[in-house]
Hints:
This protein is α/β, with parallel strands linked by helices. Helices cover 33% and strands 22% of the residues. A hairpin with a 2-residue loop joins strand 5 (151-154) and strand 6 (157-163).
Amino acid sequence: MSKKREVQIDYKTIKLFRMIVKFMSPPPILKVSDWADNYRILSAGASAEPGKWNTSRAEYQREIMDAVNDNECVEIIIMSSAQVGKTEIILNIIGYYIDYDPSPILVIQPTDSMAETFSKDRLSKMIRDTPALSDKISSAKSRDSENTILHKTFPGGHITMIGANAPSGLASRPIKILLCDEVDRYPKSAGTEGDPVDLAEKRTTTFWNKKIVKVSTPTIKNASRIEIDYNESSKEKWNVACPCCGQYQPFEWGRLRFSDVKMKCKYCEEYFSEVEWKQQPGKWIAENDNRKVRGFHLNEMASPWKSWNDIIKDYQKAWKTYKKTRNPESLKVWINTSLGETWEEKGEAADEDTLISRRETYTADLPEGVLIITAGIDVQDDRFELEITGWGKEYESWGIRTDKIYGDLENSEEPWRALEEYLNKEFHFENGNGLIIAASCIDTGGHHTTKTYKWLKKMLAKGKRVYGIKGMGGQGIPFVYKISTNNSEKVKIFLLGVDSGKETLLSRLKLKEVGPGYCHFPVESEKGYDEDYMKGLTSEQRIIRTNKKGKPEIVWVKKSGVRNEPLDMRNYATAAVEILKPNWRLLEKKVKEGINYMKVTAKKKPAQERKTGIVNRGYEI
């Protein structure tokens, strides 16, 4: 054999061995932040800064992401404001495990619809625009039956997205990576199965290298899930060095001077601008020594996407709203979403004596300011109890009257006919113009349920805006939650998060200044707003108590010896106006013109119905 031939053989052998070594060698050691910097592409339409990911843009994100790669760390808790990139952190963790360390992943959002939105608007776009991921997961539009909106497979693993209200999804196959987003908005129980986070965590027990990530803006002090977890963690805050003395300290709202938008150093007491502070090096400083559960807290002042000047404007807007309405909701939202802190309830709810003392004299059925009226109907053994409520701009309300209709509700049609006739009544202003009831909500979850379903079916066939409702207790359930047809007559029933409704009513009853949200009541005895009504309206109080598993929860407790029908009726009347979603400006114009616009029925076409100022939230009733 010639020497030339021997050289050729050696060259081919070397080339083959190089290919084998390249194929069989382990991948380079990467942390989550390294993977994001090397491979992640931010999608146009899903990010304010599309293009290649750069962790140094918000350096505080690096340690949070890389905690995933710490073998000692099992749980990562992120209690934060909005606008700090927490969703992007979740997406980077997902991308890392799809591409670099394939694993079974579960992502939990507060509801099924939010899980679907997360998949469509955020995850799918990341997969589409990041080549390292698009090569591993086919499009949901393809014929790959293992790739849907809420479940996607990839070599070596899969990712499933569910709502915290779905017990079946929380109790299926094992998962290694658990990502819980906005945990403070989860219901306290997934159906009847128990706490959704507890259910999901049980699915990770078979993995020694599991990772559990919980993320949320906090809510109410001593009842916030994320705050409780954060307090038991390492409790780390992002600190930056003072431009003058070099001492590390967190961004704190209380040290921010509004006049020139500068923050004071807590050590040397010099003031520096946002740019000067954010140019300094930063690091996470822990309060507790806990490597197993790393907890991180951030507020908007650390964000590169929200200026201090804009945060001040948001605060001033929230404070102005509070001063105008005396409703603390605007401040609560600002503290939760801008400072990333819990809201501590202060002050007492209005009691019956306060409400009785502030009753007013009405000169007609409908006081000036009413633009629309609704009814809330509670079904009892031998009667209907109902309240007619008037609504003005920004949900200022007027109690119009309360009534009872007695009869044999189970065996006689007469009380049901009387109820229908009552709901057709016209109520008048002092000038003689009138309104009829725009919409009514009747309880289907208590007495005479089947009879109520049958009556509703007749009303809906006649084009009446009479909606069946069924209350659902528990935190995290939106007031007007969803529509169900799971009943004997297959009529559409609105499921109401009654605790959310009670929260709203409690806030409104506490208002002392007339205006948005304020509740008016008449003094005339025939209208029914007496001492018994006021006691019933304030019959339940919100408390924080510890459940059987030792976890705090917000519950509504009825006062002893007091009937709560007035509270239920006002909740149902409120649901009716929320379902309608009025156009207040258009309704105000119609009332001034003296047009009884509500004589347009629900059978009209959408374009005609919009002329009334009433929109049924897109619900097909």
